[in-house]
Amino acid sequence: MACVLSASCAPKPGPDVQIQLAVAQTIAALPTYTPYPTPRLPPTATAPNLDGLFCEYQFCIGHPLSIAFFDLDAQRNPLAPSSITQGMLAAYDPSLLIQVIWQEAGAASDASFMLDTIMDSKVDSRSGDLKAFQLGDLNVDYVLIATTATSALPHGGAAAWMCGGRAFAWKAYTPQAELATSLLNEALEKFRCGDP
Q1: Residue (of 173, 168, 155) closest to 115 by Cα position
Q2: Is the pTM of this model over 0.85?
Q3: Average of pLDDT values for 116-122?
Q4: Dihedral angle at the C-alpha atoms of 67, 86, 72, 172, nearest 10 degrees?
């Protein structure tokens, strides 16, 4: 009974406490906002490795890291550089020369005529049989060559293929005969073309 009496004798909360209690209960009952989602950035694509790759004129072709292609047509005549439909590139250092040419294929269904176009009959001669092989979608004609263009680079190779309505040819002068084949493989493994 003492408990009941002491509880009844306890001081009653004043109006300030009752207001604070009512405000706290009202605030607790208010709906909360859904937090905005944290923006997620889409994953970025990994940039392709451009080392040893020439991309221009709607095609890409590989080359050794030690040298880079330049537009030989633009070097000869800055007012008439290479274009998508035809052109000529070269890459050079004292131990290597690589040349690439292209033109619209027209009605041709075989690119072997490009071997005669890229080989200089005054200094280049075939030193092996013509080999045809397929690499991906490319049908490639390839021949080893000997050259008297420079005594430092007496060997080489020449190749031709078609892609995207264009005929391409590639030639290299090298100090060793077997080097031309590996250079061609490097060039063609990275080769891509688009329609002109």
Answers
A1: 168
A2: no
A3: 95
A4: 50
Between CA 141 and CA 132 the distance in angstroms is 4
Q: pLDDT at residue 148 above 90?
A: yes
Whole-number Å distance between alpha carbons of 80 and 177: 34
Give the C-alpha distances (Å, rounded to integers) separating 172 from 69, 123, 136, 183. Answer: 12, 13, 22, 8
Phi, psi (degrees; rounded to nearest 5) at 187: -65, -45
Phi, psi of 173 (to 5 degrees): -105, 130
Structural domains in the chain?
57-193 (3.40.1000)
